[in-house]
Amino acid sequence: MSRETRLNIREAFGLLVVHAVPSGVFAVTKQGHLRLPASVRHCCGLVPGDRVLLVADPDQNLLVVHPHVALDELLVARHVELLGGDRP
Hints:
The protein has 88 residues and is of the alpha+beta class. The chain has one domain (6-83). The chain has helices at residues 38-43, 68-83; strands spanning 6-12, 15-20, 26-27, 52-57, 62-67. A 5-stranded antiparallel β-sheet has the order 3-1-2-5-4.
């Protein structure tokens, strides 16, 4: 994403989906940083300084932000499948 990139950011299933589109409400900063506004962070329970997993799909101009809570849920579900137990 370039410094002039306009972005739409939405929450979906506890993740943030960042899509580069010309009509986007948000933008990459002049320094080339992606800043997540407080209103967007609050959708997923993120606070400044939280670590996230970023997954990019350059062909679709998409970036998916995985908050730690979403990663925990994915891992717990997978481990329950693997170990054949009940979800805590």
